[in-house]
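Closing statement on the xanthosine-5'-monophosphate sub-project.
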Amino acid sequence: MKLFEAKVFIEKSLQEIRESVGDRNVISACSGGVDSTVATFLVHKAVGDRLVAVFIDDGLRREGEPEFVVRILKDLGIKTRFIDAKEEFFKIFAGRVDAEEKRRAFRHEFYSVLGKVAKEEKILVIVQGTIKADVIETVKGIKSQHNVLEQIGIDPLVYGYKILEPLRELFKPEVRMVGRELGLPAEISERMPFPGPALSLRVLGVVTPERVKIVRQATQIVEEETLQLGTFQNFAVLHNDKATGIKNDERLYGNIITVRIVDSTDAVTAKAREVPYEILFKIAKRITKEIPSVVRCLYDITDKPPSTIEFE
Ligand code: XMP
């Protein structure tokens, strides 16, 4: 097998991007994740100020994330537009409980918002950080990843534009290598993966601002308590059903949170980490203490396969 050389990939990519874009302007949907930020930075290197990065605040991001992403893009010298679309996204989730239906709804809203921005900016080319694993899972029908369109027969022109996916042939470790070679800060290139549809995949059942707030708080606790583990992904999931518990000496039929901590290199397979009990115990203590509605905290010990990393 040929060894991946980030430098060679970047040179080839820059040329391809320039050829494909010509003298047009480009926008890049940047969520702050490794893939979309590396893709954004790569295209910025190719076309400079003809690129506008767009951060869509869908109300589903982790604590402090919108501010973090905007700061990073600014530090990298990339022109950025911040779009507050929280209301629109929560509207489309109303009444939806099925995982795939939620994914499709997210995808549709995501492209509609981007399409609108692209029209305002009179831009026809949109950059996305789609990587190989996204394409494989979507084409196999395991999950419809939010950023995969053409491969499943949806014409991006329906939404009004052409899609540029410079990382579509790479897996996550190679994307990180490209990020490092491009000189991105480690807080981006070494970042824990985070899915495009964000916390909507981790709120099982209906996605509402209140339910997202619960999982956001739990996520922050899990991340704080597992920083030193160096695992591939660490997060919390809010269940769609409830359980009996006791708070303030009274019965509370409350929420259930599952904690998922996995090792992986490319997200195609994953292993549940054997986390020291003291860490799990502390997480459970904090989650049930700091989030009033949560009465039960579970740990997921299933590998991928047969599970997937996310619950939805
Ligand atoms: P699963 O849950 O399929 O996830 O084992 C594999 C990896 O992909 C991430 N993931 C997504 N990333 N859009 C993304 O950008 C999506 O729709 C999506 N779904 C899952 C997941 O967090 C894991 O790293």
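Residues 99-120 form the longest helix (22 residues). With this model delivered, the sub-project is considered complete and its resources will be redirected to Aim 3.
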